[in-house]
Design brief:
The structure holds two protein chains of two kinds. Chain A is built from ten helices and ten strands. Chain A is α/β, with parallel strands linked by helices. In chain A, the strands form two sheets. Chain A has a six-stranded mixed sheet with strand order 6-7-8-3-9-10, sandwiched between helices. A four-stranded antiparallel sheet of chain A has the order 2-1-4-5, covered by helices on one side. The longest helix of chain A is centred in the middle third of the chain and has 14 residues. By secondary structure, chain B is mainly α. Chain B folds into two domains: 33 residues; 241 residues, MetI-like fold, CATH 1.10.3720.10. Chain B has twelve helices and two strands. A two-stranded antiparallel sheet of chain B has the order 1-2. Chain B is globular. Chain B starts with a helix and ends with a helix. The mean pLDDT of chain B is 91. The chains are: A alpha/beta, B mainly alpha. At the A-B interface, helix 2, helix 3 and helix 6 of A face helix 7 and helix 8 of B.
């Protein structure tokens, strides 16, 4: 499929951010960002360190709320709902918007308990049902065959790449529509990285994936759309092919050709 | 050149360490050597006779054990909850800095001050009388700072990633703490707390004014009763007894029992630690 930008008229925008400003205390980290993210596509955020791409990602599941002294202006709609409206349910939001972190962070529990953690806190306690969810999630994250015989062993015994796929399975287990990935492969060896990228390729048909990466080849390989951030501003957003072949902005071109960053 | 200096420093550090071990070892050796001959079943299972010149120290053992139990019941939940609040919920403002400073200062307050405080508040004002209740509460106040500080450190040692992952899955803050912070830090919390409580077991000043009986050869019936306690009994034998020299073996044996009690407590802490380490390895 050839992705185009501006989006075709019938595109389903799962995430719509309008005029977002974001502050850490008195320091403004994001400036007036507006952006529509299409459903069931992979959208990559690229840019040099400190450009605000991770901060912007963490707005979508309100993870920035856990940092004291942060403040957001503007509007963010997910599936048409204003997620920062007072009275909006963060727990429900995070069920629908899963997240995978840069540093794989499986709980120091068994593989099974890791994947079952989300369903359990959301009220599923039936062993049979949990086993079903765990199996399905591990199959989807392409980890099932490697761990099916040792589900009760500690997750920290897995390799780095396996741990990260376990974290993906854990996120999938609560049944999200959207997956946010914050440099999910940056701490992995090349082989494990390829596995994660393949996995993203398999998940793209079912989930809306937003991935932050500092690896431009990775963005080019796996994403349909790419957004380039610089110093807290969204410089350019376009179909990935366009960004990497004919960027509109000089800054984008400089960055992807390696002239800075 | 630098390796030579390295060696000298290494040697110095080693000697300091050995000298400390030597001193502690000698104290332990001395207590065991003099105490062991007087330690027998009769000594720990019978009531004292003739103001402690004969018989055993059962009431003092029971007294100290009940004080310890009371202290743990009061101080552990309070301390852990305070630590959870400080580490997980409170925003880091000047106010919490002052609270932390106050807690650390409290840890350094001499124990007789806690004894006087307990006398004023629990014994007199709240009218608990000299009782296990008043004594336990006083000891609890004394060990609270230690428990809070060590628990907070144990909570902070849990990597942020666990909290983030749990929150990102839609867990509430409390669910996150209960399932993914507290269990991992429990070994540290228990170890730190037991060390503090073990020290409280040997304190004389706080119980002197709030619970301890000079000579009371019977067991307590309720938490409003007075009891004998090991450290206080030791103090009496050593300084107040008309024939202090003659009861010297009993003093040593009492000290040995107290030591064994604290050792048992520490072993319990180590056991709990191993259990949780095995369960949650990180």
């Amino acid at each position: 499929m050839v992705e185009t930008y501006p989006f075709p008229a019938d595109t389903n925008h799962v995430i719509t951010a309008s005029r977002v400003n974001f502050f850490y205390g008195a320091t403004q980290a994001l400036f007036d960002i507006s952006m529509d993210i299409p459903g069931r596509r992979v959208t990559a955020f690229i840019g040099p360190s400190g450009c605000g791409k991770s901060t912007f990602l963490r707005i979508f599941n309100r993870m920035n709320d856990t940092i004291t002294g942060t403040r957001i202006e503007g509007e963010v709609l997910i599936n048409g709902e204003d997620i920062y409206e007072s009275g909006s349910n963060v727990v429900r939001l995070r069920r629908k918007v899963g997240m995978v972190f840069q540093k794989s962070n499986p709980f120091p529990k068994s593989i099974f308990d890791n994947v079952a953690y989300g369903p359990r806190i959301h009220g599923t306690h039936d062993r049979q049902q949990l086993a079903e969810i765990v199996e399905q999630s591990l199959i989807r994250s392409a980890l099932w065959n490697e761990v099916k015989d040792r589900l009760e062993t500690n997750a920290l015994g897995l390799s780095g790449g396996q741990q990260q796929r376990l974290c993906i399975a854990r996120a999938l287990a609560v049944g999200p529509d959207i997956l946010l990935m914050d440099e999910p492969a940056s701490a992995l060896d090349p082989k494990s990285t390829i596995r994660i990228e393949d996995l993203i390729g398999e998940l793209r048909n079912e989930y809306t994936i937003v991935i932050v990466t500092h690896n431009m080849q990775q963005a080019a390989r796996i994403s349909d759309y790419t957004a380039f951030f610089y110093e807290g501003r969204l410089v350019e957003f376009n179909a990935t092919k366009k960004i990497f072949t004919k960027p509109r902005e000089k800054q984008t071109e400089d960055y992807i050709t390696g002239r800075f960053g | 050149m630098s390796t030579r200096r390295e060696q000298i420093i290494y040697l110095l550090i080693r000697m300091v360490m050995y000298s400390i071990v030597l001193v502690i070892g000698y104290i332990l050796f001395d207590i065991v050597r003099h105490g062991l001959p007087a330690l027998n079943w009769e000594f720990i299972s019978e009531y004292p006779r003739k103001s402690g010149s004969e018989g055993g120290i059962l009431p003092a053992i029971v007294g100290t054990l009940s004080l310890l139990a009371g202290t743990i019941i009061v101080a552990l939940p309070l301390g852990i909850c305070s630590a959870i609040y400080l580490s997980e919920y409170a925003e880091q403002t000047r106010f919490t800095t002052i609270i932390r400073l106050a807690i650390i200062t409290l840890a350094g307050v001499p124990s007789i001050v806690f004894g006087l405080f307990g006398l004023g508040l629990f014994v007199l004002f709240l009218n608990f009388g000299t009782s296990i209740l008043a004594g336990s509460l006083t000891l609890a106040c004394m060990v609270l700072p230690t428990i809070i500080v060590s628990s907070e450190e144990a909570l902070r040692a849990v990597p942020l990633g666990y909290r983030d992952a749990s929150l990102a899955l839609g867990a509430t803050k409390w669910e996150t703490i209960r399932t993914n912070v507290l269990p991992y830090s429990l070994s540290g919390i228990i170890t730190g707390s037991i060390l503090g409580i073990g020290r409280a077991a040997g304190e004389t000043a706080p119980i002197l004014l709030t619970v301890a009986a000079f000579y009371l050869p019977k067991l307590p019936k309720s938490i409003f009763d007075q009891v004998m306690a090991l450290p206080y009994h030791l103090y009496i034998l050593a300084t107040q007894h008309p024939e202090a020299d003659k009861v010297l073996p009993l003093q040593y044996a009492t000290a040995l029992v107290l030591l064994l009690l604290v050792l048992g407590l520490s072993l319990g802490a180590i056991f709990i630690r191993i259990h949780f380490r095995k369960k949650y390895r990180w």
